[in-house]
Structures are given as C-alpha cells and as structure tokens.
Amino acid sequence: MIRNLSVAILASIALQGCMFSPGQHMDTSQIVRDGTSESGNVELIPITPKLIAMEASTQVDESIPPELLSYSPESYRIGANDLLFITVWDHPELTAPSGPQQQIDANGRLVRPDGKLFYPYVGNIAAAGKTIEELRAYISERLTQFVDSPQVDISVLRFASQKIVVSGAVVRAGQQPLTTTPLSVVEAVGYAGIDPLNADLSGLTLTRDGREYKLDLDALNRQKNSALPNVYLKAGDQLYLPYNDRKRIYVMGEVNQPRALTFKTKTMNLSDVLGTVGGLNQTTSNGNAVYVIRGVENLDKEPAKIFQLEATSPSAMALATRFDVQAQDVVYVGPANITRWNRFISQLVPSASIVGIGAAARNDMSEAGSR
C-alpha cells in the first residue's frame, strides 16, 4: 500500500511538471513571424533604432498656445473689497483722519461691495473699474474746489478683488490675488509650491473663460528658449496640477526590486525604469526577455503591443535610454531557463520528502513485522 502511495505521489509530481511552468513566464511561441499573435490581439515589436526614430517623429510638439502668449495684462483696475491708501500732500486731515499714530490700515479707504468708496469733499466715488491713475486724477479734479493744487497719491494696501485659484498637488492650494505687478503661471505655481512626490508635472491645466489649456511644465522648462515665464494670468483663471497616483509603471519578473513606479513627468525611459528597480537580477534573468506590455482601450479592434528588448548587448541599453515607457505600461523581465528549472526542483523537493517519509514508514513497519 505504501509502495502504491509513493508511486502515486511521484506520478502527481511528474504530471504537475508537464502541465505547469513554475514561476512567472511569458510564452511568445504563439506569436507568428510577422509579429502578430494567432488570435490577432497581440503584436510583438522588437525595440530597434528604426522604431526609436519612428517614435521620435510622432512625438507631439510641446508648445504654448498663441492666445496664451498674446495676452498682455492691462493696468490694475480697482474692485470691491480693495483697501486703498489715499495721500493728499500737506493735508494730513485728509490723508490720515484717524491720526498718524494709528496703523496704516486704520486710515485705509475700503471699496464697498457695490464698488464705491467715500472720500471727504468728494463724496461717493464709483471706484470699481478704474485704474489707480484714473482714480487719482478724478479725486484731484474734485479737490481743486477746496484745496489749492492738490497733490494726490494712491496705493493699494490690500488686493482683494481680482484673484486666481491654484489647486491640486501643491503645498499651498487656494486663491492668489492679482496685484499691480502681473502674475505669470510660473510665479503662481512657484508661490503655491509643487508637491515633489505626488505632482504630475506634465499635466498642469489652465482653465480660462471655460477653455482648458494643457501645459507640460517639465517639457517646457527643458526647452532652451521657453516662453512659459511669459504666460500671464488674469482674474478668474484656475490652475490645476494633477496628482501622479494614476501614472504608474508596473515592473515585474526577474528584477531586483519588482514594484509599481510612479513618476511625475510625461514619460520615463526604459533604462530609468530598470535602474530604479535595481536592474535585472544577474543570476535569474534572461537578458533577451525584456518586454514592455502596452494595452489598448479596445482590444477587439486593435492589438495590444508588446515591445521586446534584447538587453544582452551594450547597444541595447542605448536603445533603452531612448525608448519611452508610458503610464500603465507593464515592464516584464523573463527568467533564464536554468532559473525555471531550479524553481521546478525547489517545488519537487518538498513532495520528494513526503515520498521519503513514506519509504521510511514502510521500513519501520517491515522491521516490526519481522520481530
């Protein structure tokens, strides 16, 4: 009976070895010579210099829309809730009616929600919509009836009427006021502070007048003569810097640190991907089995692409440096044949131990019977 049990276990082990290939393995034997699988839903593409050249020719030019560059901020126009400080030289009773000992804000003139402010001898003034120079000229003209050659100066103590909003993967999200100094996209993002670990630098979105503009901060900043600092904001603009939690590359197989990688640029080249996970495992990997698997939205209509790199030659690593891996790609490094055999042996040993235990039990029973 024990002999029959041992034979059954060995047969089971042999059957498992025939049915399954221990360890993760990508079988490309069903992909025919033209690069398409027999089922038609997979296309195998070698990574070659020709492919790199074709990919480079199809890259989208990262340029700034002309309408953003053509916008030039006009002079600041006063609005509701702005706090103004109006100085009339040699007339402190008009400049600081609360007394010079008070803080400067106490002598400020607040523009009411209806856009008006009150000023002595002038009365209610429709200040909203006027530039600082226009309001200064208006008050000077009205004061000439009471003051000889009035010298009027106006400054804004608090800018509150015109704002832009920055949100997303930034340190200080929220509103930013527009002032007499034009505010650019670069300055607004810089003030908000980029979250260095979680931001997607390639996906900055500027929403203006109901239209969205995509700005790749990483690509534009790498250009020699970038015009990005010349993109200025206007009241009501919204900037959104997305998070990179959905931009992942999944690295699997025979690498030293398999895991999911997040990245903050538009793409990441294959060499950087492999380097980030510690490279190929030198003892278990197959250098000719480096694959980049890229899915498609509709697998019924177009095949998924599998790019293959034969990484055993030095020139292949140069290609890897120029091959861009995209978000949601899977990078898989296959095992060497000896690795697959070793894994089979490692699974065989525990089962063989069971057979050994059965054989030992049989000997013990035989010895007991002879006694």
TrEMBL record:
> Can you tell me which residues the record assigns to a coiled coil?
none
What keywords would UniProt list here?
Cell outer membrane, Ion transport, Lipoprotein, Membrane, Palmitate, Polysaccharide transport, Porin, Signal, Sugar transport, Transmembrane, Transmembrane beta strand, Transport
Question: In this protein, which residues make up the domain named Outer-membrane lipoprotein Wza C-terminal?
Answer: 338-356
Give compartment(s).
Answer: Cell outer membrane
Q: How does it sit in the membrane?
A: Multi-pass membrane protein
Which residues are in the Polysaccharide export protein N-terminal domain? 72-156
Q: Which residues form the SLBB domain?
A: 162-240, 247-333
Q: Which family does it belong to?
A: Belongs to the BexD/CtrA/VexA family.
Under what name is this protein listed? Answer: Polysaccharide biosynthesis/export family protein
